[in-house]
C-alpha cells in the first residue's frame, strides 16, 4: 500500500462528493422558485439512497467476482471491504477507499438523472425508482465496464464514466421524462436564480478534477494527464458552445458558458487518461457543438420533456466522448491501450466503442421503461395539476426557498 496514493484518493473522494450538492444547486437555480427545494432534495436524497443501496448490494453487484454480466455477493454488506488492498481493483490503496470512490460515481449519476424529471415527477416514486435503478441498471453496467464484465473483456475504454455514469443517467432520464411528460405542456421556463446555478456549477467543475484525476487510482503520469485534459476540456466545451450561441442570437449567456463547460467535461470523461492534450481540446469542442445542437435545436423540434437537459448534455456528451475515445486514444499516452483511428487508420477501436455504447443505450432504455411501467401500476409518477400549479416545495416538503410575498407585505405595512 502506498500512503501518498491513499491520501490522493481520499482527497479525490471529497472532491467528487462535492459534485452532488453542487449539481443540486446548479439544478435548483434553473427551476421555478416554487420547486427549488424539491429539485435540491432529489439530488440530496440521492446521497442517502445510493449509500444504502451501494453498501447493501450495489458494490457487490458491480465489483463482485461473478460472471460477464453481473457481480456475485462476495462483498454484500461490504464484507471483505476494509483497509487492506485488493489485487484486482485497488493494489495501491485500501479497498474501502476504492468502494467509496465508486459510490460517489453512482451518487452523481442519480443526481444527473434527476435533471430530466425536475418539477415533473413525484418525490416518493422518484426515490423508489432510483433505488431500483442502482441495482438494475447502474450496477450491471459498472460491472460490464470496470468489474471484469464483457465490455472490459472487449477492450472498450471508459476512463472515468462516460458510459457508466453519463450515458446510463442521461438515457434513463430521457426515457423517464418522456414517460411522465405525456400530456404535460412542454414549456421553456426562466431560471429563478442564475447565481445559485453558478455556485453549483463551480462546485461541479472543481469536483470533476477529482472525478477524472482520481480514476487513475494512483498519483502517476496518467493522473496528471487526465487532470490537464479535464482543465482543457472545460474551456474547450465552453468555447465552442459560446461561439454557436453568439452566431445564433448575438448574445453570450452565463448559462451557455456553464452548459458548455459541462459538455466539455462530460465528453472528455471517458477519454481523459487515454488521449493527448490537443485531442482533449478537439474532443471537448466537438462535444460542446453536439450538445448545443441537441439542447437548442433537436429538443425544440422533437418537443420532449428533458427539463434541465440531462440527456442533452450528459447522455449526448457521454456518447460522443465514448466514440471519440476510439478515434483519439493513444498508446504513447497510455501504455495499456491500443492506438486509435487517427494513428492506425483502422476502425477497430471505434467499432468496439460503438458496440459498448449501443448496448448500454439500449439496455438503459429497456430497463428504465420496465421499471417506470411497473411503478406506474402501483403509484402515479407524474406530478398532479395542483402540484404543478402551487409548487412542490410547499405541498410536498412544507417549506419555501424564498419569501418574496411575505417580504412585500411587510414592506407595504411599514
Automatic annotation (TrEMBL):
GO cellular component, one term: plasma membrane
Entry membrane topology: Multi-pass membrane protein
Localization, UniProt: Cell membrane; Membrane
Keywords associated with the record: Ammonia transport, Membrane, Transmembrane, Transmembrane helix, Transport
Domain Ammonium transporter AmtB-like, first and last residues per copy: 8-402
Keyword Transmembrane among record annotations: yes
GO terms for MF: ammonium channel activity
Major localisation: membrane
Coiled-coil residue windows: none
The keyword Flavoprotein belongs to this UniProt entry's keyword annotation: no
Alphabetized InterPro entries for the sequence: Ammonium/urea_transptr (IPR029020), Ammonium_transpt (IPR001905), NH4_transpt_AmtB-like_dom (IPR024041)
Transmembrane segments: 6-31, 43-63, 93-114, 126-147, 159-181, 193-211, 223-247, 254-272, 278-298, 310-330, 350-371
Family per similarity comment: Belongs to the ammonia transporter channel (TC 1.A.11.2) family.
Name of the protein this chain belongs to: Ammonium transporter
Organism encoding this protein: Staphylococcus hominis
Lineage: Bacteria, Bacillati, Bacillota, Bacilli, Bacillales
